[in-house]
Automatic annotation (TrEMBL):
InterPro entries: Class_I_gatase-like, DJ-1/PfpI, Prot/Nucl_acid_deglycase. Coiled coil: none annotated. It is an enzyme of class 4 (lyase). It comes from Hohenbuehelia grisea. This is D-lactate dehydratase. SUPFAM superfamilies: Class I glutamine amidotransferase-like. Residues 3-118 form the DJ-1/PfpI domain. Gene3D superfamilies: 3.40.50.880.
């Protein structure tokens, strides 16, 4: 079964995240959402559960997990999705982990989908 890693941060555009997630699941793709913390707010170690991500329109979304350096590479997923939403896209663009993941997925000829500001 194909798999997708969909990133989520505070300020992500809710529709760009939820419609993408829903469409992929309906197509038979196994999806995992990973929370990208703002570097200023990032915990020293990831707690058991990630916080609710507050979308660009104020809707809270519960991600599956925190984004960490290990375990989310192109050997684990077929597709990396980066939704837009100005604040969320800004947080993701400043993340060294996200930057490295994008490079790794492209290097391994995996798909990287960036929506709008993503």
């Amino acid at each position: 079964m194909p798999s997708a890693l969909i990133l989520l941060a505070d300020g992500t555009e809710e529709m760009e995240f939820t419609i993408t997630y829903d469409t992929l699941v309906r197509a038979g793709v196994s999806c995992t959402s990973a929370f990208v913390a703002d570097q200023a707010d990032a915990p020293k170690s990831a707690p058991v559960s990630p916080p609710l991500a507050k979308g660009s329109r104020g809707i809270n979304i519960q991600p599956d997990t925190y984004l960490e350096k290990a375990g989310f590479g192109p050997d684990k997923y077929d597709l990396l999705v980066i939704p837009g939403g100005a604040k969320g896209a800004d947080t993701m663009s400043k993340s060294a982990t996200v930057q490295q993941l994008v490079r790794d997925y492209i290097e391994k000829d995996k798909y990287v989908g960036m929506i709008c500001a993503g």
